[in-house]
Amino acid sequence: MIQPFFVFSDWAFFILRVVIGFLMVYHGFPKLKALSATGEEFAEMGFRPGKFWALVSGVAEFAGGIFLVAGLLTQPVALVLAAQFLVIVVKVKGFGSVKKYEYDLVLFASLLVLATVGGGALSLDGFFGLFLY
After folding, report:
1. CA distances to 52, 90, 124 from 108, in Å
2. Stated pTM of the model
3. What pLDDT does 129 receive?
4. Nearest-5° Cα angle at 104, 130 to 125
5. In this structure, are residues 66 and 26 in contact, taking their beta carbons and an 8 Å threshold?
6. Contacts with 77 (C-beta within 8 Å, 6 or more apart), sequence order
């Protein structure tokens, strides 16, 4: 390990958290904006009722993304989003070609890191001492 780089670990978690948070907001907003169409897509994928699961997915991504950017309740939010991406990788994309699910798998792994270590010192969790485990 390179000891001098440890001083940047808080910034690394900050960057990871903010980038994933913005990606979640970016993907969650269109789901909420076109809820009926998204609900139909979810129903076609086998999620019944489709509109309910589209709402759950959209709210989880949009609100969860905002929470990740702020670093508020990072661990439980990241755990919920990791569960969502596990469903995406296993049920929606399947284990055919890795090209189908590589992006989702990287997000899943990154969310597991945030669920494990939290938002870091540069977060509202760090400011308020909200580390759950």
Report:
1. 23, 11, 22
2. 0.89
3. 83
4. 10
5. no
6. 64, 67, 68
Residue with tokens 């897509």: 41
Mean pLDDT, the chain, integer: 90
Tokens 């580390």 sit on residue: 131
Q: Residue 21 to residues 24, 44, 64, 106: CA-CA distances in angstroms?
A: 5, 27, 7, 14
Asked whether the beta carbons of 83 and 63 are under 8 A apart, the reply is no
Instruction: Please count the other Cβ atoms lying within 10 Å of the Cβ belonging to residue 123.
Output: 25
Cβ neighbours of residue 69 under 8 Å, at least 6 residues apart? Answer: 17, 18, 21, 22, 25
CA 28 vs. chain centroid, Å, equals: 10
Q: What is the largest CA-CA distance in the chain?
A: 52
**pLDDT classification of 101: cutoffs 50, 70, 90:** confident
* Unique residue bearing structure tokens 């905002």: 66
Residue 17 predicted with pLDDT over 90: yes
